[in-house]
Each structure stands twice: as structure tokens, then as C-alpha cells.
């Protein structure tokens, strides 16, 4: 039972770290890089990147995996000293998921649905996308998911001390 408990917490920690890293990569590399491009390049590249990220590795292993593994870890650690840290991580990541689904995904879907950049008004599409709003909310996701990762790492430390 102890091995399964630790495995759940490790899976939560690893998947949370992966997701935090992805959001961080968007914040410090992808979006600043795209921000320096012309409208056609921005729209085409963002469409391609967003289509590529919707894959089983990211969706199951990262984005939803972090949520499910953290829930599993919380259940596994009921009544244990690490539980408050796991629950705090879960709350922060739940906020991240809500932000993603309420703010970022609708913008991503709209830019993809706009159509072929060679046939649309790319300046209007980019403006409607709301680049600064997307980036601002992504920064909230970075802070929340990175903090959740740190909390899960601390929970692992506590688990090792009490186990």
C-alpha cells in the first residue's frame, strides 16, 4: 500500500512539473517569440502549435494527468501529514485548469477556427485573439502550476520523513 501511495504522489509531482514547464515555456519562449513576428506568421504558427499540443502525451500524461494523479494522491494520503500540501496543490491546479478552459482554450479554438492564414484577415484574427490577455492569464497558470509542483515536491519530502 505504501508503494502505491508514493507512486501516486510521484506521478502527481512529475505530471505537475511537466505541465508547469509547458506553461512556463509558453511564457518565456513561445509567446515572446511569436510576439515578434508579423500577423500572418503569428496566426499560422499559433494554429500549428495548438494543433500539435492536443495529443495524448500532453492531454493524458500532462494536463489532465496532473489533475487526476493529484486527486489520487490526495485520496491516498488521507490522514497523513502530506495531505494539506497535496490539497493545496490540487486547489492551485484546479484553478489552472479552470483558467485554461475558460480563457486560453476558447482563444486557441477561435484562432484555429479562423481558417487558413493565406485567406483571412490575419491582423483582425490576431487582434481578436487578445494576445496580451492570453499571455497574462498564462502567467497566472505558470505561477499556480509551479507553486503546485513545489507543494507536491514538499509533500514527497514529508512522505519520506514520515514513511
Automatic annotation (TrEMBL):
<feature type="transmembrane region" description="Helical">
    <location>
        <begin position="6"/>
        <end position="27"/>
    </location>
</feature>
<keyword id="KW-1133">Transmembrane helix</keyword>
<dbReference type="Pfam" id="PF08592">
    <property type="entry name" value="Anthrone_oxy"/>
</dbReference>
<keyword id="KW-0812">Transmembrane</keyword>
<dbReference type="InterPro" id="IPR013901">
    <property type="entry name" value="Anthrone_oxy"/>
</dbReference>
<feature type="transmembrane region" description="Helical">
    <location>
        <begin position="139"/>
        <end position="157"/>
    </location>
</feature>
<feature type="transmembrane region" description="Helical">
    <location>
        <begin position="85"/>
        <end position="105"/>
    </location>
</feature>
<feature type="transmembrane region" description="Helical">
    <location>
        <begin position="57"/>
        <end position="79"/>
    </location>
</feature>
<protein>
    <submittedName>
        <fullName>Putative membrane protein</fullName>
    </submittedName>
</protein>
<keyword id="KW-0472">Membrane</keyword>
Amino acid at each position: 500500500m505504501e508503494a502505491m501511495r508514493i507512486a501516486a504522489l510521484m506521478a502527481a509531482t512529475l505530471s505537475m512539473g511537466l505541465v508547469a514547464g509547458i506553461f512556463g515555456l509558453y511564457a518565456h519562449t513561445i509567446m515572446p517569440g511569436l510576439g515578434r513576428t508579423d500577423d500572418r506568421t503569428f496566426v499560422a504558427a499559433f494554429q500549428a502549435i495548438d494543433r500539435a499540443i492536443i495529443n495524448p502525451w500532453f492531454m493524458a500524461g500532462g494536463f489532465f494527468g496532473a489533475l487526476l494523479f493529484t486527486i489520487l494522491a490526495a485520496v491516498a494520503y488521507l490522514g497523513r501529514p502530506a495531505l494539506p500540501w497535496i490539497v493545496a496543490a490540487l486547489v492551485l491546479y484546479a484553478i489552472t485548469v479552470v483558467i485554461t478552459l475558460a480563457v486560453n482554450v476558447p482563444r486557441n479554438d477561435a484562432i484555429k477556427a479562423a481558417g487558413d492564414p493565406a485567406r483571412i484577415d490575419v491582423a483582425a484574427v490576431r487582434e481578436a485573439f487578445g494576445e496580451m490577455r492570453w499571455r497574462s492569464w498564462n502567467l497566472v497558470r505558470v505561477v499556480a502550476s509551479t507553486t503546485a509542483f513545489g507543494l507536491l515536491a514538499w509533500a514527497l519530502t514529508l512522505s519520506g520523513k514520515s514513511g
